[in-house]
From TrEMBL:
InterPro entries: Class_I_gatase-like, Peptidase_C26, PuuD-like
Lineage: Bacteria, Bacillati, Bacillota, Bacilli, Bacillales
GO biological process, one term: polyamine catabolic process
Gene3D superfamilies registered for this protein in UniProt: 3.40.50.880
Organism: Sporolactobacillus nakayamae
GO CC terms in record: cytosol
Protein name (record): Putative glutamine amidotransferase
Pfam families documented for this protein: Peptidase_C26
UniProt cross-references to PROSITE patterns, sorted A to Z: GATASE_TYPE_1
Single Gene Ontology MF annotation: transferase activity
Amino acid sequence: MSKPIIGITSAFVKLSNFSEGVYAHKDYSTALIKAGAIPLILPIAPGSCADQYMELCDGFLLSGGCDVNPKFFDQDPMPGCGLFDTERDQMEFQLVRQSIKKGKPVFGICRGLQVMNVALGGTLIQDIASELDHPIQHVQKVSRKEVSHRVRLEKDTYLFQILGEQETVMVNSLHHQSIDRLGDGLRAAAFSADGIIEAVDVKENGLIGVQWHPESMTAGGSDMMLGLFKYFVTRCKEMKQANSEV
Ligand SMILES: [Mn+2]
């Protein structure tokens, strides 16, 4: 069977007045290639273009990036809320909701996990450091390939199995927002010591999301985190096969 095509969502970046472009950190494609998939970077384009992305791709990796516009979970921006991109939010919500309908897996990473949660009716903590009483450091100061805090895995989850049935694993952390109330059908699969939801996992519809950056740990040589991408790529193949038999 040919390799599955995974759409990676992207950001719009402006490098200078003469250089504006479509951006997704190289570690996402590196990790997907290592796991046996064909990565395809998708420019932000909600509506009919994103409908075609649905046809084109066997699964989607929602990448990290800016904050989610809090209007999408019925809140005003708090003082600690950062920049957001409403068009990107809309396109990624569309991809999450249509993927569930069409039986295509979605892997949310960092912002991608938050997007997945809001797309399914959940809410976010807009700024962990100012909204929690006793937060740990979730915006690490070391390089993104290095790990900085522990997460405790829920034992009855697929994530627990994928990561080698360890109760706690060390992860990197580059986020200041996180899930507050869980979206419909999502279940928490991992927590940090301050109670932040660090992962969700729903095998039935192929949704998996982590708050850390496994792509950069994979690029840094972590076989455990490469296992997450292999799991996702395998789900993409399985669900493609199942859809073709319908
Ligand atoms: Mn964290």
